[in-house]
Design goal:
By secondary structure, this protein is of the alpha+beta class. The protein is built from three helices and 16 strands. The model has no long low-confidence stretch (mean pLDDT about 80).
Length: about 180
């Protein structure tokens, strides 16, 4: 999305990008609300989790990413985000605020609409030679050993049936497994 306006016969274009904002611990919902009140497009992914108390079970909404909120802003609006109570700073990547793709925000929204009790784990935790369990797809619950890592995928050797099948699997669909 972008806006245009004329300033001394120059056309200026403001592009808005999704950025990640690091917040104070347990301030995600409040920061999201404050950003929205400032008229900024903000998103705090909320996970529906069942919590059990001694007398009842209740579904509560907890932030999926602890201490993070996403905001879609232009460069000119970034200072308004920083001045928001509870917002510490933007998440940086290579010296610049990390830009999150629109399709990734939409994927998070769709995923949370479809599933409850979602667990967010860093894909960076997976290493070569580590035993992993596949958590999604046609190979779900199969185990194997990571033989190669790429940016978003892992080559996993699945050693069932006396054969080694090598599959390229999205790293987000893998979790650590106990060695056999």
């Amino acid at each position: 999305m972008w806006l245009r306006w004329r300033s001394h016969s120059k056309i200026m274009v403001l592009t808005r990008k999704w950025l990640a904002v690091y917040t104070r611990p347990r301030w995600e919902k409040k920061v999201n609300q404050l950003l929205t009140e400032k008229g900024l497009e903000s998103y705090c992914p909320l996970n529906k989790v069942r919590r059990k108390w001694s007398d009842r079970v209740k579904i509560v909404e907890e932030p999926l990413f602890k201490s993070y909120v996403f905001v879609k802003v232009s460069d000119e609006d970034r200072s308004a985000v920083r001045m928001t109570a509870g917002a510490i700073n933007f998440v940086y990547w290579q010296g610049k605020p990390a830009v999150i793709k629109e399709k990734e925000i939409l994927a998070i929204k769709r995923f949370l609409d479809e599933y409850e009790n979602v667990e967010a784990r860093s894909a960076a935790d997976i290493k070569v030679n580590q035993r992993v369990r596949i958590t999604n797809g046609s190979l779900m619950d199969q185990e194997g050993k990571v033989i190669d890592l790429r940016h978003k995928t892992a080559r996993v050797a699945i050693d069932s049936l006396g054969f080694i099948l090598v599959a390229h699997i999205d790293r987000s669909k893998l979790t650590s497994a106990q060695p056999k």
